[in-house]
């Protein structure tokens, strides 16, 4: 499983960081998502983050 | 498809959505309703439909669009000023939001934690040193988020009475149109003057930093206005409502007392349970769009009944129970889509700190009045409590 993030779509709500801080971070500058681990350690958490993301900036490639 | 004559917006039970909204969710989840202002719009009551709608950029947030649903007549006059963030659509919205969202990242908010803790401690100490019963709204709920947003923006807290009164005037549905317009004008000229001062003497605050980015005055005033109002009553009302709910659910309170690691999840549940700002998520269709088998035509307004949707059994098991351990993170109390609340992580942290500190410092806290007699804000656009008498 691989995480794909579209920073143009991201609205910087930080829901991903709250849900799975090992996989996601936010840029200090504009709050957009930074993927720390393309292949997340905890797949369940990463999936939850993708589901919760309000802007649908995150997707999963199986 | 059902048409109801008027969408009632008052609750029969302070802890539940209006009955009519629940009926809509069960029987006609996408239906035509008449708003108190007279306009006919679509009402969405299911969690899934609302998420789909709010994530679809073809539903516009432009409050100047004549089809945009407004609860009150007088709102049209108030919202007619230059677009603030909440009223923008792509492609304008993305860059404008990104210019400020860096101020609200999870990390930045975490850095504010010690200061917020200090503010909460000071206010609780002052309350405990004062007479009993005390009004928790004045002692804690309002001053904590107000101070925090003022410090963040660089607005002098000494002026808080000025904007608190204007802000509640604005949020009350029964406020006459003229008073509403006057409140907005006063707030805007206050902020305009403040920004002029910051131009001459910048400080270490959000508004001063925004001034380095842009000199577009209208835009900055709108941003300051939005953040100030949104930072005021929302969190304050959640503090009051959350306190009542926790006091009325001793098992929930015991859970977070025993293990503060459960507080973040309790906060999500309280946000879901009350969904205090549901009418902020209205939209207008910019094309003909099919949603859940219904055709919504270009120009038609849509309101999201987020409160009811957050009690949708399809999205939450036993939705009417307050279950602090359920993991309610997918609630839509902060909205959804590109406009999802900018200050949500600040709000979360304030609520966590307040509940942890309040119930630790004041173990004997209890209501000074039966909860049925509390003045719930049934006439305000942000749900909450006007007063919360407590003793200990
Ligand atoms: S949850 Fe989505 S919108 Fe928010 S920061 Fe993460 S990727 Fe961006």
From TrEMBL, chain A:
Keywords: 3Fe-4S, Electron transport, Iron, Iron-sulfur, Metal-binding, Transport. Residues 1-60 form the Divergent 4Fe-4S mono-cluster domain. GO terms for molecular function: 3 iron, 4 sulfur cluster binding; electron transfer activity; iron ion binding. Its cofactor is [3Fe-4S] cluster. PANTHER family: FERREDOXIN. Ferredoxins are iron-sulfur proteins that transfer electrons in a wide variety of metabolic reactions. This is Ferredoxin. It comes from Amycolatopsis acidiphila.
């Amino acid at each position: 499983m691989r995480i794909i993030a579209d920073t143009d779509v991201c609205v910087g709500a930080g829901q991903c960081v709250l849900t799975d801080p090992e996989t996601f971070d936010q840029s200090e500058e504009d709050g957009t998502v930074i993927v720390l681990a393309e292949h997340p350690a905890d797949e369940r958490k990463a999936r939850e983050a993708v589901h919760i993301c309000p802007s649908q900036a995150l997707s999963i490639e199986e | 498809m059902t048409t109801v004559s008027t969408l009632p917006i008052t609750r029969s039970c302070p802890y539940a959505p209006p009955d009519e909204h629940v009926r809509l969710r069960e029987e006609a989840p996408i239906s035509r309703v008449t708003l108190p202002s007279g306009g006919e719009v679509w009402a969405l009551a299911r969690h899934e439909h609302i998420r789909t709608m709010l994530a679809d950029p073809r539903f516009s947030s432009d409050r100047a669009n004549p089809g945009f649903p407004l609860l009150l007549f007088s709102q049209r006059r108030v919202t007619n000023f230059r677009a603030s963030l909440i009223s923008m659509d792509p492609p304008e919205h993305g860059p404008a939001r990104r210019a400020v969202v860096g101020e609200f990242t999870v990390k930045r908010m975490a850095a504010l934690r010690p200061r917020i803790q200090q503010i909460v401690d000071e206010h609780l100490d002052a309350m405990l040193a004062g007479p009993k019963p005390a009004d928790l709204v004045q002692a804690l709920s309002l001053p904590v988020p107000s101070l925090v947003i003022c410090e963040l923006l660089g607005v002098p807290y000494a002026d808080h009475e000025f904007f608190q009164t204007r802000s509640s005037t604005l949020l009350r549905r029964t406020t006459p149109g003229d008073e509403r317009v006057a409140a907005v004008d006063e707030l805007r000229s206050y902020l305009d003057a403040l920004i002029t001062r910051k131009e001459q003497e910048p400080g270490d605050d959000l508004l001063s930093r925004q001034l380095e980015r842009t000199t577009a005055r209208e835009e900055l005033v709108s941003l300051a206005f939005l953040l100030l109002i949104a930072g005021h009553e929302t969190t304050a009302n959640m503090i009051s409502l959350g306190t009542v709910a926790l006091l009325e659910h001793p098992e929930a309170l015991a859970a977070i007392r025993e293990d503060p690691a459960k507080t973040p999840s309790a906060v999500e549940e309280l946000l879901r349970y009350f969904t205090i700002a549901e009418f902020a998520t209205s939209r207008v269709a910019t094309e003909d769009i099919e949603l859940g088998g219904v055709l919504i035509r270009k120009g038609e307004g849509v309101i999201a009944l987020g409160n009811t949707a957050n009690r949708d059994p399809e999205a939450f098991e036993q939705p009417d129970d307050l279950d602090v351990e359920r993991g309610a993170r997918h609630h839509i109390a902060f909205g959804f889509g590109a406009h999802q609340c900018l200050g949500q992580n600040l709000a979360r942290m304030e609520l966590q700190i307040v509940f942890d500190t309040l119930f630790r410092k004041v173990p004997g806290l209890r209501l000074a009045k039966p909860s049925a007699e509390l003045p719930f804000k049934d006439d305000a656009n942000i749900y909450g409590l006007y007063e919360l008498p407590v003793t200990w």
